[in-house]
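Lab meeting minutes (informal)
Scribe: AK
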Amino acid sequence: MRPIAFQADRVRSHVLHYSPPTRFGAVYREEIRKASNITAYLGANVIDLECPSPPAYVSGVRVACLTGSSFRVNARAFILAAGGLENARLLLISNKAQPAGLANTYDQVGRYFMEHLYLDRAAIIVSRETRISEFYTSGHWSKGKRVRGLLSLSPEVQEKEMLTNYCAVVDREFLSRSVPLWRSLLHVVRTRRLPAGRMARLRHAANRIAAAVAARMPRAEPFGRRYMVKNVMEQAPNPESRVVLNAGHDRLGCPEITLQWSLTAIDKRTVHRAHEIMDEELRRAGVGELHSALGREADPWPSGLRGARHHMGTTRMHADPRRGVVDANCRVHGIANLYVAGSSVFPTSGSANPTLTIVALALRLAEHVSRSLREGRYAAP
């Protein structure tokens, strides 16, 4: 399971460490319930951040429940941690002191929405003499953790050619991956008693599926030498990619949002150029070649383009309030006791899953707020 020995430092191999799925609400629920310094209210929805005019601090938040009850919460400090869409919405709907929305003096709230761009079947790799190592195609276990190799562009190439982050997840070609599934299906058919008519229909359907798949595959290439490439890309920050309020209202009477997701030329340039560079370096390393299905760069995005459900941006971090919503400590510009936690503060998104960075920023913010409370930086509610 050795990585590919690339001849130039344009493409690199990276290792992805898989983490067991952790549902925080389930895993930490009992710990939160027993904590002496935490009171959790489930089903309680913040519908307004109350501020004086001009809004220099948050004096309290109004909360409403779908059952019809409502109440107000006072605190010395407030942290929004509702995700990349809802953090922006909460600021936009809190518009009594500022008609454009709280902390939206410079029209920055909701802007720079980013997603990780996924393209599942936009390229294949055809290997030459040997198969690509399972280090890339399925991974292996190391020190009790499952790891898997990825291919990415080097930082030097990204900087030189002005490209965003890109990585390729390599998988076995569909038909070769499906062989174990076909064997399993045949085993079920052979070992279980089925009515003759149903058995015949099952065989007929299986034969039609196999014929349809085989008809799409070039005859010259053995199945074991073909690999699918899942493209995972960073989206370039774009102020026109944004969250805005619309005319609709939810069950609590709050304005709903519209997501105006917008990509730029650099996003498309990155994946096209990445395919070219990957192909060149795979050939130079004697591994094989990459065949892109993207067509021309001027063509529309493939219909298979999708987001990873990694909502980022919308309350981006920047030292200048004219270009961002929060400062380096995740404090909302101009609001003394209001902070934002989560991926909405990301100024850029990279191509890796954002959870680890979200947790790291949240821990850093918790330490900052705790220290500020001890030092008495916030006025008593």
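Next up, CB showed the second protein from the same session:
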Amino acid sequence: MLAICPGVNVGSLGIIDHEPREIDDNGLRRLQHLGEIAVSLFGLHKITREVERRSKSISRQAEIISAQTAMLNRQKNILERASGLAKLGAWEVDLRSGKIDWSEGMYTLHEVDHTFDIKKDKVLGFYPQPDRDRFISVLDKSRKKNTPYTFEGRNDSVG
């Protein structure tokens, strides 16, 4: 009986010959070895089928991710065009690292190119007083409470 794993039998190995023969110890060892090879091949087949199944699943997931990425890129382009027409910009601050990311509209609004070094002090310089102090207060409150914020204020760089 061939067993792929303990308790799971999948068949038996039989040898057919034209005439009955006695099998010596060497012949028994060779038959046992042949059985072990057969079990290994069944195991390999099982693993191969599982790899194929997982590969198909990964391919389907990659197709879904690719379609979602294409959709997000289309939506981003639409949003960028709408923001440009409305003269809007958006930005995001990572409160832990302080890193600031700008949308295309922010570069346009501030009339700077993509080589502009976006630092907190430089960004704050775009806002006149008292809006600058109010903006700093909003940022500090957001950082302390770990909450999002909304700020509207005048911008000196916008003509």
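CB comment: DSSP finds four helices and four strands in the chain.
No objections, moving on.
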